[in-house]
Amino acid sequence: MKKNGSFLKTAFTKLLFGVHVVVVRCLQWGDTGKGKIVDALMFWADIIVRGTGGDNAGHTIVNNGKKTILHIIPSGIMGDSEGKITIIGPGTVIYPKALTDEMLNLRRQGLSYDNLKISKDAKLILPTHIFEDRIKELSNGKGKIGTTGKGIGPAYADHYARIGLTMNDILNENVFRKKLERHLLHKTHLMDYPLDKAEEVMHCEHLMNGKFYDAHELFAFDEIVYQYVNLFGKALKPYIEDTNFLIRDALRRKRNILIEGAQGDLLSVDYGTYPFVTSSDSSLEGLVKGCGLRTEHVGLDLGIIKGFMETRVGSGTFPTEMGGGLSAEHCATYTKEQEKVMYPDVSVNSEDDLKAGIALRKVAQEYGVTTGRPRRIGYLDLPLLRHSMSRASAKTRLVLTKLDILGDVKTIKVCTHYKYHGDRYFDGKREYSEGSFVMTPPMDHYFLSYCEPVYEEFPGWSEDITKIRDYKDLPQELKDILDFIVENVGAKNQPAIVSVGPDREETIVL
Ligand code: IMP
Ligand code: MG
Fold this sequence. Notes:
This protein is an alpha/beta fold and about 500 residues long. It folds into 3 domains: about 20-120 and about 240-305, Adenylosuccinate Synthetase, Chain A, domain 1 (3-Layer(aba) Sandwich); about 125-235, Adenylosuccinate Synthetase, subunit A, domain 2, CATH 1.10.300; about 310-510, Adenylosuccinate Synthetase, subunit A, domain 3 (Adenylosuccinate Synthetase, Chain A, domain 3, Alpha-Beta Complex), CATH 3.90.170. It contains 16 helices and 23 strands. It has helices at about 5-10, 35-40, 95-110, 125-140, 150-160, 175-185, 195-200, 220-235, 245-250, 285-290, 325-335, 335-340, 355-365, 380-390, 445-450, 475-490, and strands at about 20-25, 45-50, 60-65, 65-70, 85-90, 95, 115-120, 125, 215, 220, 240, 255-260, 300-305, 310, 375-380, 395-400, 410-420, 425, 430, 435-440, 450-460, 495-500, 505-510. The strands form 6 sheets. Strands 11-7-5-2-12-1-13-16-22-23 form a 10-stranded mixed beta sheet, with helices on both faces. Strands 14, 15, 17, 20 and 21 form a 5-stranded mixed beta sheet that branches. Helix 4 packs across helix 5 (about 150-160) and helix 4 (about 125-140) packs across helix 7. The radius of gyration is 23 Å and the shape is globular. It starts with 5 loop residues before the first helix and ends with a strand. The mean pLDDT is about 95. Bound molecules: inosinic acid and magnesium ion. The site of inosinic acid has 20 residues, from helix 5.
C-alpha cells in the first residue's frame, strides 16, 4: 500500500467533517469496487468493521505489485501495520478454515493482522452447512441460486432455526460438543442425499478433502470437534472477543469507524431480488446491526454503483442484462479462458448486445474473485436503483466507480423504467397489467422476469478521464448522465465520489 497522499486528505475534508461513522456499501449486486473506496478512506479510519456475509465475498487488493485476495477478512486489514483495528462483526458467518487460510496467506506475504478482532457472536459455518449448500445447488437444476458454495445460506438459516453455533463455542470444547450433537440431530435429513453424491461433495478441497466425512454418519463428529476446537479454536483464540463492547467504546471516544459492506443492496435477503439473493441483510440496516451499531450512528452512508453499468454473478433476474438469457447462459457455462478463445475480437460498440457485453467484461475485468465466474453484465438500471434509493436517508450519497471503463463506448444506454408484460399483478398499492409502466418495481423475481427495460441513450465521451481530479473538468457528456441519474432516482444530494481509475488517487471527491 502506498502511503496516503495528502491529496486525498484534502479532498475528503469537507465530506468527512464532523463524521465518525462512515458506511461503504454497494447499491447493486456486489462487486462495485468497495475495496478501492475503503482504501481511499483508510487515512481517516481508526477501526474497520464488517457486519454481514462470510467468505462468499471477495476483494482483490494490490499491494506493492503483489495481489492479495481476501474473502472473510475486511480489506481494512491493509491498515493493520499502522495500528488500525479490523473487526469481523457479530452479524457475519465464519468458516474457521477459510479464516485461518487467509491469515496464513497474509503472513506469507509479509502482511500483519495483529489488530484483527473476531466477534465471539459471529455465526459458525460448519461442514454441514457447506455440504447442504453444495448438494442443494447440485439438485436444484434450473431453479438454482448459483451460490458460492460456502455454506452461507444454511449457516444463517440454522441461526434462525436456533440450531446454530457461534465463534465462542470453538473456545469451549464441552459446550461445542453438546451444541454440535444437538445440531447434528436436527440435520439428519442431510443423510437422505444419494451416497455417491454425498461422498463426492464431502471430498472437496473446501471441506478438507473428506476429513469431516464418515461413511455411516455422514459427518465425522470427533474429527469436527478436533479441527474446530483443537486446531481452529486454539489458532483463533487470541483474536476472538466481545467486539460489541469494543465498538461502543470506540463510539463513545469518537474514534473513526469505517463500516465495510459486503455483497450489495440488491442481494439483501430482506430488500433484494428475492430469492436470488444472499442469506444476510446486506442493506444499510443489516450491515450496521451486524457491526453492533445502529443506523442513527451513521454520519455518512456511501452507496456505490458501477459507473453507468451493472453486473451480477450467479442466477437471478437481471432485466438490463446485455444479451439477456443468452448472456446468463454463457456466463453460467464458460470460464474466463474459454470466453477469451471463443470471442477473441469483440467490440464494446458491437451491434450485438451479447458481444458488446463480452467486450465490456473483458475491458472491465469482470470475473468473480471468489468463484472465477464471468460476471453477467448489463446497463444501469434506474428502476432498481430507485428501489435502493427509496430507503436512503439524507446521509446517503452516491459513489460512482469504474467510469474509466466506458471510454470507448459511443452510446451509453440507461434504463429509465420498465414495461410490464405479465399477468395482472398487485403489489399492495398498485396493480400492473400488460403494458404498465414500472418506475420502482416490487422486489419479486417473478414480476421482474416479465419486465422489459426501456432505455434512454446518451452520447459517450472520448477523452481519457483518469487524470481528472476536479468534477468540473469531467466531460460534459459524463456530467449530463450523472445529473440525469441524480434527478431520476430521487437522490437528495449530489454524488460524493466519482472514481475515474483503479488507483487510489484516481478519485474525484465532490
Ligand atoms: P451465497 O451468498 O453464496 O449464498 O450466494 C447467493 C448469491 O449471492 C449468488 O448469486 C452469489 O453469486 C451472490 N453473491 C454472494 N456474495 C457475493 C459477493 O460478494 N459479490 C457478488 N455476488 C455475491
Ligand atoms: Mg467482490
